[in-house]
């Protein structure tokens, strides 16, 4: 999924994005550095969304948030400007996508709060480094994602189903993957399910609700993690009058190291 | 499986066994204390068996061993006498069971080496304390065990298939069980497999090779751990001219606390 140049740090990647040198997706562009899902909401909705993340830490592990109107989040990167440092943004009005823009200079407002939510790139890097093959990465496709019959814990207007991502793994690799991803609670942590998609209300594993399908071979189990698409799906349900997200695959690259997210 | 009295420490349980007050199985008689599988071999075979345990730490996690001819293992319990402190022993000659005895006073020899191997009671206690239901415990039966198509790593004459125990668990409990048992490498550690018994060469999950069958419900996965019956099965294959084991379920109770085996 990486398109071209690889940068030696999160800061170098951000500067390339800020200057317009890098305009594509961010998977793999700064190995070792944490990337984040972006959601920007008006202050009037922000407190409820904070609570929603707090109540649903597996799909919505909050790694940083801005003060209202302030485009900086120093905890994620000293020089970060959330208006310019992602390659592509989506602007939503009343739940409808109205435009994709390369920066937020024209749409930024003093009442906006930016939320950054941990993403599976971090734990996928740890799995691949351990020698576990992830099919969607080998195939160069997006991970398959499914809406489940499991409800998130609601907060204010925010509610809706848990969305999960799926990676097919041999049983011994599935056990190893539980061990590895348990170390990364800030990026979804351990799987929420494995082996029985029907118990999650998934009728056809070959037909994901988001992303691309991958084959599950006879000697493999489908392993499911809580997914950062959950908050986007929940925001889409609420249809806020104004909202900004990253465009799929075009994430924020931070200065945090993936290895520093490991709790053990 | 506990038959009557519960003792407050490993030492109290051993004294009751040594005096003949307790003669039955040991499951549950000293909650919180590590129990061990016993194998006693002549010195001529002991070095190879040491190596076998070293090469196969998941089925054969060695928690203690004696010097040749010495019935003490102070690392497991200060006052331990391996000849008197288990409720029931099996004496084998040329691979055949020749007698069950309540102590080893009449058969002890100066060339014997005692091996103690960690047992699943320790991790089962941690699972049950976490609120995970283990069906064979609820049913009061022995855990089902299966010979697999996975070979152990041979050492000298010792070789043979890995034996696994199986516990049916709901997927979320299976994930939690991987986390919990990973903390206990000295008592078999994380599962070796889950979900696909046929990949282990198990033809009929309802027909275990040892122990009693348990139902695997439609919303459960069979979860498999390396089993301490493996070394007994391997020793039976070698048919040493002389050998002693504990009688099934009649284990050594040590002074080690289960919680102290947790590496994290």
UniProtKB/TrEMBL annotation, chains A, B:
The entry lists its GO molecular-function terms as: lyase activity
Q: EC annotation?
A: 4.2.1.-
Q: Does the keyword Lyase apply?
A: yes
List the coiled-coil residues: none
- Tell me which UniProt keywords the record has, alphabetically: Lyase
Enzyme class of the recorded protein, top EC level: lyase
Q: Tell me the superkingdom of the source.
A: Bacteria
Question: Does Transferase show up as a keyword for this record?
Answer: no
Give the family from UniProt.
Belongs to the D-glutamate cyclase family.
> Cross-referenced NCBIfam families, in alphabetical order?
PRK05463.1
This chain's protein is named: Putative hydro-lyase FNB15_02780
């Amino acid at each position: 999924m990486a398109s071209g140049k690889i940068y030696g740090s999160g800061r170098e990647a951000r500067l390339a994005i800020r200057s317009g040198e890098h305009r594509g997706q961010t998977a793999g562009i700064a190995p070792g550095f944490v990337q984040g899902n972006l959601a920007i909401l008006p202050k009037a909705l922000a407190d409820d969304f904070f609570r929603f993340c707090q109540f649903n830490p597996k799909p919505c592990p909050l790694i940083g948030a801005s003060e209202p109107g302030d485009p900086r989040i120093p905890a994620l990167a000293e020089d970060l400007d959330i208006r310019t440092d992602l390659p592509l943004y989506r602007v939503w009005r009343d739940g409808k996508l109205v435009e994709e823009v390369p920066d937020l200079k024209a749409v930024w407002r003093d009442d906006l709060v930016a939320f950054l939510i941990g993403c599976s790139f971090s734990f996928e890097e740890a799995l691949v480094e351990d020698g576990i093959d992830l099919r969607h990465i080998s195939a160069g496709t997006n991970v398959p994602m499914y809406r489940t019959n499991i409800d998130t814990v609601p907060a204010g207007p925010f509610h809706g189903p848990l969305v999960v991502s799926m990676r097919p793994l041999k049983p011994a690799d599935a056990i190893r993957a539980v061990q590895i991803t348990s170390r990364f609670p800030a990026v979804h942590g351990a799987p929420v399910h494995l082996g029985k998609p029907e118990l999650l209300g998934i009728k056809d594993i070959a037909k994901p609700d988001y992303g691309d399908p991958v084959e599950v071979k006879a000697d493999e189990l489908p392993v499911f993690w809580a997914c950062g698409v959950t908050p986007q799906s929940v925001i889409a349900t609420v249809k806020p009058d104004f909202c900004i997200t990253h465009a799929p695959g075009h994430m924020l690259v931070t200065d945090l190291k993936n290895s520093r997210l490991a709790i053990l």
